[in-house]
């Protein structure tokens, strides 16, 4: 079994030509489980958004989840109809047109699709160091043993331990392990919901705190504030729109016409409730000053209010387990995206090679190295801001893929396994404009205001460094076509 199948918890069947085809083996309930761990993604940016918008961040989280409905229905149609996985797979499939560019020096269709896939890869990769740093923050803030340890050294040690364990398990095949991971992701979200709901019944939550601190004292709704608002919306969607994972596996639902809308609506409603209630509870319980004191460990003061020191310790263990699950999810999603890109000739071919158990170990080792290199930055918010640029670009490319699939003669008459609601072409156009011309500029302003030029350079350079890399890869594939073909055949046999 390949690692890409393990993520979805689906099985792979082999056709007569020995090529892999994803079997339709999951229902909408399993699709819901796939996205159950997504609300944990709110943790890195609760602190940052509350610091910039005060209680108004509650509305931003809610709007961002609602925006996810507009994007994810389109992604679900592409995944279900064309049998491709994720934003990266959709972009590469739709824009790739070798016949159109066969006489051109550059295959611009492949380039555009590859940029969309790379942006999606850039989005998930930072999740790994971000949550590794956050685990270290929780340990240092609430376990005396780690209080005096150098934070960077601690985080690097955690990175080696976490990444090493994921690679070790993943190299042995992950079908059963992935199902356990999905179950644990569902289990860890329950304590998070309990922690944030209890203050409403104990009197620790104060609605007046929310109303009195709805926006910063200096807020005046002028140009700078509007830019900050859109920048925060771009940061929020990095977390709150992550339930597109339920749409990613549209090709693997047993009954796509019924399972896809059920899974998307169920996941969206679950995330809508969780993001709203977490943001509301945290701000109404801690207030602006309390959140600033807690920093990125925003849930721990509330857990200690709810359960005391012992209960807080148990909550800490469960939260860390949840963050580990998200790291593993990101690790596998990155490997999946890199595998698909390499398979299409848009990354070095050896990243598409797997071991005897079907795990893309070269891709996983690459993530290991990059993740460790990012940990010393020791700034989750800064890394997230850079990653959010990639997600805006990836979502914009996903919408362009949907638009092209609806209008391109090659695809517009293809029977849709499941079709987004009427009028969704206009919705996709609106979202593409929003991503490229509103959220990305707002995110640039947010990053420069909240951090510095280095943070912006980190995000932009990570995105655009792929441009020369892609041209080098294409040059190599043309220069050594025999190796290119042999590797492709080897991949099929594996």
- Provide the CATH topology: Amino acid/polyamine transporter I
Strand proportion, as a percent range, falls in under 5%
Strand order, sheet with most strands:
1-2
Please, how many helices? 22
Largest sheet: 2 strands, antiparallel
Annotation, overall tally of beta strands: 2
Judging by the overall fold, what is the CATH architecture?
A: Up-down Bundle
Which features characterize this protein?
494 residues, mainly alpha, two-stranded antiparallel sheet, 2 strands, 1% strand, disordered N terminus, disordered C terminus
Report on the architecture of this protein.
By secondary structure, this protein is an all-alpha fold. It has one domain (3-101, 108-493): Amino acid/polyamine transporter I (Up-down Bundle). 74% of the residues lie in helices and 1% in strands. It has a two-stranded antiparallel sheet. Helix 2 runs parallel beside helix 15 and helix 10 packs antiparallel against helix 16 (299-343). It is globular and about 70 Å long.
